[in-house]
């Protein structure tokens, strides 16, 4: 028994620091995920390295190239051998033997095949993966791959390092996030609209008790519920809403203090705005509820079944509100009061969750699924995070390339901050066009730089005109700069772009946090970055 | 790097890296693969299991070995021709003096604590070597550049310091779980297994001298181990609380704690039953009470009875399996048995005081001030450090940036680059502005000024104190015996009675030769100090006083303040006037050091973020 316990506890130690970010659920999702990497240059290797360290389930590297002297300079291959021995070896194999050393819990595989060929000849290969990370792929291959991945509902993350610039783009039809973990969110206390049990509990405590020990240990939730009621009684049932009223409400709270250093009353004053929160449902959640996907059928995902249930809940038990989150913040209080409050919030959250569960079962029955096919844990997490749901939808690359939203693009060009990103975006696409014509990247021969600059410019103009942006001018300096980059995959940029790509994979796989909503462009010249929604 | 000029600069550069932890591993690799060929690396730490999820140069077989040496060897395997010199040493050691620093073109910090960061900042200023600073916490990170005369130094702006707690809150009136953790870790654990000669406030409440006549924590040679564990339990959770309860004054306005005795918490279990699982813990496995007792889930909150079982078991395991270490153990967040003891003791105490109990996972986070850490951020930050370092090497100071990496793209930006600020004219480190010290010169000893102000607040390592031309104190080796004796004598004197009396208006000169830092402190005599707000009995002003993190127990306030913080972040890009605010906002989540009487902060390998009680602040990233 003890040995088993140790075996269970041991691997966790290694992941202790990251479990504090995404928890056991997130870690379990990572351990189940299988990742495919196309091209194992520095950017791709960096991205995989981060995922392998974090304990991703399995990785498969697709790369048909051999290790060349330039790889030895900017990739950490061939860990345990003399560098030269790797020359001419399969790069995929070389990278994999290094990755495997990082974490023996990860399944590391490779396919010696060029990504382009794989995309052209064996599209069904990709359907076995959770996420495909495509690095340093030209536009034409990327377009095809995006089509394949979308058809199979596989998440695609494209990443590219190019000189001092780089790009990361997520592509998936729809990614629904329950645990979006926003930086800040108001506690779900319902002080503006307390339910019966909370009201009764608040009433059971005499906030005018002269016993100083009781008085200074009355939790601020109770103080606020009571005083909000008192305020409403004196104001036609309305809660403080104007600035002036809010100030007066704070004065009302202060008037109930027995002495100036009662922490709980200070907390009540500081939290008094929680009484005035706008009741009901936020626009973001409203949009999700009103989305056509919430009209569910047999092919709907669990997420949307839950949204459908949520919609019914709001209209019925919820009385226009979402299920209660059920937790309360720490506050100055007598433990007994605090624990009672905790229980009251928990109980309401459980009741709400049960109601949701009931509705979910009915919906499942209605659409022809087994009523128990969605786990209680999932429903619980959903209820707890009902205020924070997010639905991310990405346009396909086909749409992005062939049907750009001109008004958006023009806005980016006009904006000082995003103009550089737009320039790089166009130039990176122009580079691919030029490469298709000349079978090489611009700027790789010093002797031809002077000719490559105008060539790149011509290519860029053709990209612009295809987008319907005739007359938009690019920065001459950046054209020259991009030519000078000569397609080099320099390590600091690769580390950064690979880092961003792996971070997006973590968000997508754990379904926690919100992934980048567009094309992320990095400018290593002055370290700016932008997300362009194209 | 993308240009011939930068390639030359990179090839010719000699760089010093301080820290081979989370950022350090990534940085060393990135430097090597960018073409740097002369790298010196200092790190004091050895490798821990919990490093392995991101410090990718290390393997399981390296646990316990020097980070600096292992990192060097690992990188030399794929870049055999470059020169990497590794030092398994403290950057504060005398060998790393100003002359040592002068040989480098740039210094890159991947450090984990404020103390070392300040030290390196001073040496870089003295040696006039540019410094690139960095830190990460979870998905957040930052890179800043500090060049003497051109930008602000690392200490120009206040740094957050950890919250310190009044000793009496810890010893007798805890009101939050973190107080119980500090008690369990810094008092109880230290008393049981630490250096016996160290002062310890654990028994502060003994009503008479009776319990101190012999040390109750001492185990008699023939005392049965179970007996001993139960005796300790009853003493710290029962008897000590009873003694404290006698002090009626304390409880007038407070909830009275409940003494906890083993006969009540584990009435059914006899001594013999408690000793059943011993054989489970055989062999090479690290001793663990959780393993012995079959507790598997570190995220579950144990009952009072289970906490009591764990407490007794850990005590016994320490004596049975780790006897040799007793007397010189220091709490370490990666020491499973130590974490188990601290968790169970803190929970039993929390129960006594009506504070909610916590799981081992949460308690470990509080006790170790554990930082969220993930490979992705470190890799990204290392990339940015190198890009910045290349600019520094080329003297491209117009393009220096302080860059903040955010967790959620704000206004569509993941990175927040800001132009560096001018040096702060009133910075005592990089300017010559004098400081002001309010102190009672008639009652305060020189030792207190040196410990609480000069070492802890000003971060000096080996200070020297002069009053006018009279040298009253000097630290370090190589002193003559009579000098040393004389200084030792001075240390115990109150300021007004020093050979050159310190009174209202006296000016002290304090210097640290190693850091080549000198500053003046003007003395203001004051007799009254507020015990709660000014616990040192002295107040230092005229410097960028570290800001104590404003984290209250009130979640609402936190939400409110963080939302305004984010507005600031958003505005910063549009409005240059708010840049400083942005910096403060982002700095405040940054790492800190230890400087409190009751709380010792453990350093993690990346950066340290301090909260009063991390478990109560799930959203602390936004602070
Ligand atoms: Zn300064």
TrEMBL record, chain A:
* Cellular compartments annotated: Nucleus
Q: Name one GO cellular component term.
A: nucleus
This one is known as: NEDD8-activating enzyme E1 regulatory subunit
The record's annotation in InterPro entries points to:
APP-BP1, ThiF/MoeB/HesA, ThiF_NAD_FAD-bd, Ubiquitin-activating_enz
Read off the PANTHER family from this record.
Answer: NEDD8-ACTIVATING ENZYME E1 REGULATORY SUBUNIT, UBIQUITIN-ACTIVATING ENZYME E1
Quote any Pfam family the record assigns: ThiF
What does this chain do? Regulatory subunit of the dimeric E1 enzyme. E1 activates RUB1/NEDD8 by first adenylating its C-terminal glycine residue with ATP, thereafter linking this residue to the side chain of the catalytic cysteine, yielding a RUB1-ECR1 thioester and free AMP. E1 finally transfers RUB1 to the catalytic cysteine of RCE1.
Record key words, sorted: Nucleotide-binding, Nucleus, Ubl conjugation pathway
| Pathway field | Protein modification; protein neddylation
Q: What is its main location?
A: nucleus
Q: What GO terms are given for molecular function? A: NEDD8 activating enzyme activity; nucleotide binding
> Any idea where the THIF-type NAD/FAD binding fold domain is?
15-512
Source organism per entry reads: Brachypodium distachyon
Concerning its family, UniProt says: Belongs to the ubiquitin-activating E1 family. ULA1 subfamily.
Entry-linked Gene3D superfamilies: NAD(P)-binding Rossmann-like Domain
User: Which GO BP terms apply?
Assistant: protein neddylation
Q: Could you say which residues form the signal peptide?
A: none
Look up the domain of life of the source: Eukaryota
Automatic annotation (TrEMBL), chain B:
Q: Where is the composition biased (Acidic residues)?
A: 601-614
Q: Which Pfam families match?
A: ThiF, UAE_UbL
Q: Supply one GO CC term from the record.
A: SUMO activating enzyme complex
* UniProt domain THIF-type NAD/FAD binding fold: residue ranges: 7-428
**Ubiquitin/SUMO-activating enzyme ubiquitin-like domain spans which residues?**
438-529
Instruction: Cite the record's Polar residues compositional bias ranges.
Output: 551-566
What family name appears in the similarity comment? Belongs to the ubiquitin-activating E1 family.
* Quaternary structure and partners: Heterodimer.
Q: What is this protein called?
A: SUMO-activating enzyme subunit
Q: Which gene encodes it?
A: LOC100839563
